[in-house]
Amino acid sequence: MIIWMIIGMAIVTAIPRFLPVIIINQAVFPKWVDAWLNAIPYAALGALIFPGIISVKPEAPQVGIIAGLFAVFIAWLNLNIIFVVLGAIAAVFLMTI
Q1: Longest dimension (CA), the chain
Q2: Closest listed residue to residue 46, CA positions, set 63, 24, 71
Q3: What's the pTM?
Q4: What is the pLDDT of residues 59-68, one digit of tens each?
């Protein structure tokens, strides 16, 4: 009985996740809507990262801002995302020792 409940809950939660993907793949949007939709992941990522940048060291918020700018610079050089993350971590570490 429990297994059927788990399977049912999995199906009920999977449908709202997969249905929009299926619908969006069939739809054709104007160019400006596509551009707007393509910007959403970057905006969401910025909204998730920015508070962490400011609060990395609450008594010295410039440490996070400088490390964030350093990460932007490394990303601008088209390096792998791992190097961007490690570079930002190293920048914070070097400024806090």
Answers
A1: 57
A2: 71
A3: 0.61
A4: 999 999 999 9
